[in-house]
Design brief:
Layout: H1 31-38, H2 55-88, H3 101-106, H4 115-123, H5 127-133, H6 135-156, H7 167-183
Helix pairs in contact: 2-4, 4-5, 5-6
């Protein structure tokens, strides 16, 4: 192979953080040695070697712990705004609410059909009207309140969040939702009370 056909190897300068200037011999040295001499902490220095975490995992844990209060506050604020909009604007009269694509494409009612109307009635204290629009929501309110209290307590105690339900109960809830979905789509007077 001639010298003109030999591949050319260009020396790439190391990538340095903003404000760090390479020393006279830094072009051929490893970037970590230049960074170590600059006094900037490296990613490897973030995790203590005895905790068993990789540096990326440690950074994720720290970032999640710092962002969690802001995320929770944002969720509470968005929920309050959504509740206020739902309280003031009846979904039967205003049509800016999201539509049910399942109902629009199939004509069938899903377990969530009528939840917005039921929640609007519930916010106004009309329990019977809310039950008419979505019975599953009203029946599941005690369970939803229990989950909310459990999550708040776990959060206050800095415990990991968990449902605390055995898999059998979760399968039972799913089966009840499917049965109600089938029954509310059947014709006839007995099933009319399940339709919004």
């Amino acid at each position: 192979m001639s010298s003109s056909a030999a591949p050319i190897k260009a020396a790439h300068p190391p990538v340095l953080p903003h404000g760090v200037r390479p020393s006279s011999g830094a072009a051929g040295s490893d970037p970590p040695s230049v960074l170590e001499s600059s006094g900037i902490p490296l990613l490897a220095d973030v995790a203590a070697p005895e905790d068993g975490r990789t540096p990326a995992q440690s950074l994720w844990v720290v970032a999640r712990a710092r962002c969690a209060p802001a995320v929770m506050a944002m969720c509470v604020l968005l929920s309050a705004v959504a509740g206020l909009v739902l309280f003031c604007f009846d979904p039967r009269e205003y049509h800016f609410y999201p539509i049910c694509f399942f109902h629009k494409t199939t004509g069938l009612l899903c377990p969530g059909c009528g939840v917005l109307r039921a929640t609007h009635q519930l916010l106004h204290g009309h329990l019977a009207a809310a039950f008419h629009f979505n019975p599953m929501l009203i029946v599941s309110l005690p369970l939803l309140c229990w989950f909310g209290a459990r999550f708040a307590l776990q959060r206050a105690r800095n415990q990991p969040l968990s449902l605390g339900l055995p898999p059998g109960v979760l399968w039972l809830i799913l089966a009840a939702m499917l049965v109600v979905s089938v029954l509310r789509n059947l014709p006839g007077a007995p099933f009319a009370m399940l339709r919004p």
